[in-house]
Amino acid sequence: MTATLAEVRKGSADDEGVGTDSAQGPRADRPRRRNFTPEYKAAIVAEYDALTEPGARGALLRREGLYSSHIVEWRRARDAGALDGLARSGGRGKDRDQAEIERLRKRAERAEAELERTRAALDLVGKAHALLETLSRARARVEEVIAQLLPEVERLTSTAKACALLGKPRASLYRQRNRPAGPRRKPGRADRRPMRSTRPSARRSLRCCASRASPTRRSPKCGPSCSTRASTCARSPRCTGSCARTT
């Protein structure tokens, strides 16, 4: 175990740069972040668990410059089966990739479910449209059959019950029965009331015609230009004298 751990430690130092003095520059004397390979972690955890003597585990941690938190974290990773191929620098990136893959997978599942629901809805709409077309074509025939059966059922029961049994609205039945026999005629120009003319000459003509047709409004002795309303124009003091009096 000691030889194997030494080889693993040497390989880890060669691969990750742990314990080397190759870095040169103004910051070469500053402490560097230590990186551990998965093999080194597995070997340290196995050796740590194998030690049973008092103080042996603490001596291992002091010799390797580790803390008990390292052992706890590495043991948890080993028990989860993620220690092989899991480095400190690449573990978080791998977790992020796995999370992104899981998110995309769930998104694809939701999109597929939504697509299935849309297809089902379109299928139902198509079936409903075909059914409506069939019913619209058969509606005329249904109306004919109802019109033939309605009088017979009406003689046996009543109009309300016959309409309810055959699915015929009573308002439609009464409207059809009360409809005139002849074709409906739209009101023409002759049926419309003439519009009132606003010309003064037309109003004067209508007023004179009304005066001549009403003997109680004017005296026969008054001319068309008389302004009085008395029944005897010749004896009325209100007569202006503009009418042509007859003797």
From TrEMBL:
The keyword Heme does not apply. Residues 176-187 have a biased composition (Basic residues). The keyword Aminoacyl-tRNA synthetase does not apply. SUPFAM superfamilies: Homeodomain-like. Transmembrane segments: none annotated. Residues 1-36, 172-229 are annotated as: Disordered. Keywords: Coiled coil. Residues 94-128 form a coiled coil. This is Transposase. It comes from Mycobacterium lacus.
